Amino acid sequence: MDGFQVVGKFVPRIDAKIKVEGAASYLADMHLPGMLYGRICRSPYPHARVVEVNTRKAKRVPGVVSVLTGKDVPYLYGRSVGDQPVIASDRVRHVGDVVAAVAAESMEAAEEAVEKVEVGYETLPAVFDLEESLQPAASIVHEDMEAYWREKLVNPVPGTNICSRLTLIHGDIDDGFRRSDLVVENRFRSPMVQHCYLESKVSIAQFDPSGRICLWTHTQSPYRLAEVLLRILKISYKDLRLIVPFIGGGFGGKTPVGLEPLAIELARASRHRPVSLALDREEEFIGSWGRVPAVVEIKSGLKKDGTIMARNVRVLWDNGAYAMAGPPICRNATVGASGPYNIPHVHIEGLCIYTNNIPSGAMRGFGIPQVTWAYESHSDIIAEELGINPYEFRIKNVYKDGTRSATGEKLRSVGLKKCLESVANEFQKDATSIKPSLKSSKKYGKGLACTQKLMGSPSSSSAFIRIESDGTVIIMSSGIEVGQGSQTTLAMIASEVLGIPISKIRVNLPDSDFTPYDESTTSSKFTFHGGNAVRLAALDARKQILKIARKTFAVKSYDELDMSGGFVFARKDPKNKKTIGSLLTSGHYGKLSNVVGKGAFFSDYARPLDPKTSQSSRATACWMYAAHIAAVEVDEQTGAVKILRIVAAHDVGKAINPMGVEQQIEGGVLMGVGQAISEQMIMEKGKVLNPGFKDYKVPTALDLPEIVPKIVEVEHWKGPFGAKGLGEVPIAPTPAAIANAVSDAVGVRIFDLPLTPEKILRAIKEKSTG
Amino acid sequence: MDGFQVVGKFVPRIDAKIKVEGAASYLADMHLPGMLYGRICRSPYPHARVVEVNTRKAKRVPGVVSVLTGKDVPYLYGRSVGDQPVIASDRVRHVGDVVAAVAAESMEAAEEAVEKVEVGYETLPAVFDLEESLQPAASIVHEDMEAYWREKLVNPVPGTNICSRLTLIHGDIDDGFRRSDLVVENRFRSPMVQHCYLESKVSIAQFDPSGRICLWTHTQSPYRLAEVLLRILKISYKDLRLIVPFIGGGFGGKTPVGLEPLAIELARASRHRPVSLALDREEEFIGSWGRVPAVVEIKSGLKKDGTIMARNVRVLWDNGAYAMAGPPICRNATVGASGPYNIPHVHIEGLCIYTNNIPSGAMRGFGIPQVTWAYESHSDIIAEELGINPYEFRIKNVYKDGTRSATGEKLRSVGLKKCLESVANEFQKDATSIKPSLKSSKKYGKGLACTQKLMGSPSSSSAFIRIESDGTVIIMSSGIEVGQGSQTTLAMIASEVLGIPISKIRVNLPDSDFTPYDESTTSSKFTFHGGNAVRLAALDARKQILKIARKTFAVKSYDELDMSGGFVFARKDPKNKKTIGSLLTSGHYGKLSNVVGKGAFFSDYARPLDPKTSQSSRATACWMYAAHIAAVEVDEQTGAVKILRIVAAHDVGKAINPMGVEQQIEGGVLMGVGQAISEQMIMEKGKVLNPGFKDYKVPTALDLPEIVPKIVEVEHWKGPFGAKGLGEVPIAPTPAAIANAVSDAVGVRIFDLPLTPEKILRAIKEKSTG
């Protein structure tokens, strides 16, 4: 019994009703008076010089208001590196790169005009393969890399295709290998995959008559987007308004910066008429970005008893044509590439590499799924080589309280062992319910995988809270309801602190004119940061209410009062209670004592990584942990994998809303299932061969295995009510757990995701033929 | 030297540029997709039973979407009394009362449909005259008065037309008269006048798909309006959003509640399409409200030396057909009806009376101009009868620090004597520049008048402040920029506290989803209350910034730091300074330390009036004082008054922006000039005969006299930087000063406003004939 009234209860989403009823409005529903439609003319070549762009015919299409080329928009943009032209003027660097854009009275006119834009190209040598791109003779994707604006953490290697390089040095790697009895070395690949959110991207830009920009856009980080726009447009916060409606899924695909600069430039060129710029599904595949493909080379030195002495990891990240979030992904995921294992000697190198592939960027997990895929497949290979039970191998080596991590910090609040125990117990308990068909071609196997993820930090969130005269609570936060249930979590936190029912709480959608700074709803950090901000704002408001109530209850200090169910009462006489509304308006003439609360949370106890060694006294505000067990059935005759059951334990610190936690786990695991067995963007010379849901295989409800979410709660000392984060983590261990289960079932090991029947069947055949 | 950096400087309005350039958008500019236009069908009779409303023909007009009658909208609304049907169903009570309303695709269709609504009326006896309405046999305007919802302060007399009655008892009035040497008794009238703001009323209502109401409207009090709408629509703050754009003048004419309920009901009836409901200028005269006409009976008992011993005042307020703001006007102005004079024995009665005239309500001064007109004409009559100089009479009797007011409180911070001295000095100094034409028919005269006004209180305001990473400051307040310059005042206050230039400060327009509670921008109270809220919010933000800066400047306490010009520095070494933006982003990786400030101010040191005696230990948060001298030329042959010069001294406590103060004084005096000499709504049996600017005479630039504003600063102990209020006050003394000047010039006394040439000529003739 933790004494909470609301926190820890199963609470349905507060935005469920309007969403289910179709009453929640999304950007595609929005129509402004005089609004135009934008469309984009894209390069068919992966690398080419743009010789000429002729827009005369396009401009003559009836209904066309403006046609823009690279000459009209000479600046570069980018989240971590300013390397991307809004419209390419001299060079295109990937198939789908923007060479012109049109705004017209109708979508049809805009599309017709795009077809009539005539572009002359001179093709250039292109690089698609990561190793090739590192060769001295490789064509260079960005020759002027050093001239670009870049974030501090970006560490380019001029004259190469290396956009950013990261090294982690912990202990003495050579010494570690010298002391080892056994060395195991593997190489794993993850392909580019797509976010596949239901709602494709839209941005609507409008200039008001004073020249101020108003932008309605899908973004998980309105303030980060604002920072980018301020920098590239050379404007101030006074000149920009960003409004973010409900978002139909993001998964990192709606982090800055996307269509916004182009939507703004089309509106500017269209005599300040508003312009809606939207991507269709094909464009989501070729004109947006996918998850960064990665090659992970991992080499471990081991003692016979299973102790890991040394680990060397090299990760090559295929950033595609533009940096986007690549460098921070390289930084945040590479430092976790040795896994949640107590290893005295670690060396890691991460290279974020430009190629002429589709640009890649942020996606749920920010690189952690790619490295987890590698190190957790590797764990089972090690355990097999050593003849140790994979569970025991992990229990022995995983991070525990007090372990010094690869980043050199002494860890606190580590729930990983509990996650492993939780899945093992759950699995053991129900193992009998799964009956492998020993005689048929279908083989049963089970596999384990675990992970850790850091939360991008330091980060800051702030919130305002208002209590209205009828006791309604208004929460103002710039956190994004991207479908994950953040509105409900914030309402629960405020409800817990204020003792006001959730039904009386409204959480506003972000609007940069009003809702205060929040770094971003990414990196599984919003409940931790935004939740803390709302908790502090609610505490501030609570104190004000209780102070107002002192006179009514004739107590000396507000400490003697409490709030619950929308009422205030003295602790010594809880039956005599007053509604908050009545207290706020109890003054003479019924005038309102207005209550306004504010909260700000900045996780600056997280300390910078050393630029050379990536060591830090506190590398992140919060580490998150998880362990999954997958049970599969593999058909030896077809190579087809049927996933029977996944038990997924997550250390969430404290589940504010266990219902939301379970839903997050289930959603993440299903996404992990897709990436394990079917999803990949098939690329041929930089061209996506399956840019749509017909050929890109996302799991459907029929593919859903039984998923058993297990909530582990090892409270975080700074989290709101002890909460950690969760959103990205469930996707990470699933593919390795499934691969380990496949290996358990049929004795073959696949190193490249996804685990297609073709690959499994080939491996089975190769194994049987020796 | 007060040491202020910004406060007290002449600062041009921050919203001037966009307004002058036409870039500020007003409601009439707004168009929502699918928006319909509303029009109102109005009663031609002052009092009638509605027998039938036939809308069949109206509904058949092409483009008509909905036609509403009283049956469709059965509830009553009202700010202080819920006595007004949104659409009359059984009875109309004034010419212009609403009997039906239409929403259509175009304004033309709506107008055609309104003409085709067929209404059957049965006329009823009506009352137009205040005294008649009090007769026992008078027709009763509201028979069911007691059944209405009403504010606490409303004190009706059932079975009569008295909507609210107020008494003030101070000392022993009979004893006071017994001790007097002389009794002077007069009776004064003020007609109904119009606000004449440039922008006529518009409300746009829209239901979002979830049923939530979004209302864009002109209101000086979004939160008071919200309270009314919540009550009558039985909804919560979660169900309503009020957005207030720039407003083209209000003067109390845009206080709640106006077109909003009808706009909402038209939108509801029009299958949730948005509806814009606007008044044309004629409707502003007949379908809105004017200033409450008043009859003031004032009787004073005096000692020969000019000491005022007793004063009995009876004020009849013609509230017209509906209460609107009448009862609070009756309360707030009646308690001031004895004037700013030290009188030991005062008795006041105020009656707020229903008639079948056009409803009357709030207008700049909230009743104080009407009573000032009376008591300041009366002051000169007394002075003349006693043979005392009017200036000396006032200096002797006016409120000073420590005087016990008619409301029984011991006054503090009274700048009235200073105002009188200031206008007298200024006038003396320049008196020679005015050369009366002694020989012609034009006679020169000068007249003095002074006033006091209370600020409606207790009242509360709150504000949020955000500091962005580029040092931009965003102020969120629900105060209304009604043209008075409040945005500039708030920016100056924040700038003073934060040491950030005004050019980096943005003040958001109100939006009830985001900007926090503010009772209203009325009663000259916004600088005092909203200014205090912003000052507190800025102090809160300032402290946070300085705390963040401690480490950078290596100081122990943030007290050792200061801010100026957008920089932070240590007091001991002011040359070493850092921009606020750089400090906020100085953390590792340039992450933002977010700064959010909040402030709330509730003037609850103002204490309730005793319901029987209207005595209080502190009747208002702040009394405001002013004195005007007018110099006029009266043509004895035509009765025409030419106003030469008005010197207007106002005790504003502290002029935050002296430029704004001077503009407010000039604007108010000009409005006072209009009401003194030309403005009145001419009524005949409840019908306005001059409902438009052709026949209703508002002064133009050509009528502008020389106005000399004089700023008197007697700081208020609670005001922001010592500021009091100002907005309404300048209108109040002008008419009496002019009337006293006319009397000085030609020796005649007019008791009814306005001072038309006809009245003056008639008086001159009557005087000369005997």
Question: How does this structure look, described?
Answer:
- Two copies of one chain form a homodimer.
- Chain A is an alpha+beta fold and 770 residues long.
- Helix content of chain A is 26%, strand content 26%.
- The first copy, chain A, has 18 helices and 32 strands.
- Chain A has a seven-stranded mixed sheet, with helices on both faces. A five-stranded mixed sheet of chain A has the order 9-18-17-16-10. In chain A, strands 20-28-29-32 form a four-stranded mixed sheet, sandwiched between helices.
- The radius of gyration of chain A is 27 Å and the shape is globular.
- The termini of chain A are far apart.
- The model of chain A has no long low-confidence stretch (mean pLDDT 95).
- At the A-B interface, helix 6, strand 21 and strand 27 of A face helix 6, strand 21 and strand 27 of B.
Q: Tell me the quaternary state.
A: homodimer
| Gap from first CA to last CA of chain A | 59 Å
**Low-confidence regions of chain A:** none
Total beta-strand segments of chain A: 32
Roughly how much helix do the residues of chain A carry, as a percent range? 25-40%
Query: Which whole number gives the mean pLDDT of chain A?
Result: 95
Largest sheet geometry of chain A: 7 strands, mixed
Count of discrete alpha- or pi-helical segments spanning 4 or more residues of chain A:
18
Q: Strand pairing plus helix content of chain A: what structural class?
A: alpha+beta
The greatest interface here is: A-B, 68 and 68 residues
Strand order of the largest sheet of chain A: 3-7-1-14-11-12-13
Morphology call of chain A: globular
- Strand residue content of chain A: 25-35%
Query: What integer value in Å does the Rg of chain A equal?
Result: 27 Å
